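Got a spare moment? Tell me how you read both lines of this record:
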Amino acid sequence: MNIEKWMNRTYPIFKESELLGSVLEKVREYGLSTIITTTQNGRLSGIVSVDEIDSNDYEGELAGIVREPAFYCTESDFIEDAALILIESHDYLLPVVDEELIVTGVISVFEILEGLMEFTAMDKPGARISISLVDKPGALRDVVDFLADKEINILSIITASGDSEGTKRVVIRTDETDIQYIAGILEENGISFETISEEEGFGV
């Protein structure tokens, strides 16, 4: 999914010409940990962590203390891209810009977690099935087909490397809450599973 859907468009952005003393009052009011600045026409110009600010700088302009951003995202980037950049940079959030480098908002760890919740259907009630499959073409398709034949709707599928070489772990979430029914379908078709649990779902 694109960052555009998940980005925070209300995060306070400051002009680089603003005085640091007055900006810090707003920073404390909003509880910000990162200051993002723009030029007078709104183009991204700088970023700085509040923890990096020295009290001796309070009388100067923001332009004197911010550094040129090494990382930023565009609204059309994928949320996975933002997650990788945050891991690499060890930052909490990233500026989001349009094609003219005009700041349109930010994407933070919190928004990425919200996206992850939707990707995995964690917010929806249903069942969570964990299966270890041989890592070969068609292995997952068989499981999906068996569930589809019984008209069980799949909400999400996540795959990861298995515990042993040549296998992969698959977590499937369905809207069917009868875990005994699902277990019966898998056993009937010779699919061994690690766990099946009922999920109540939750939202933010």
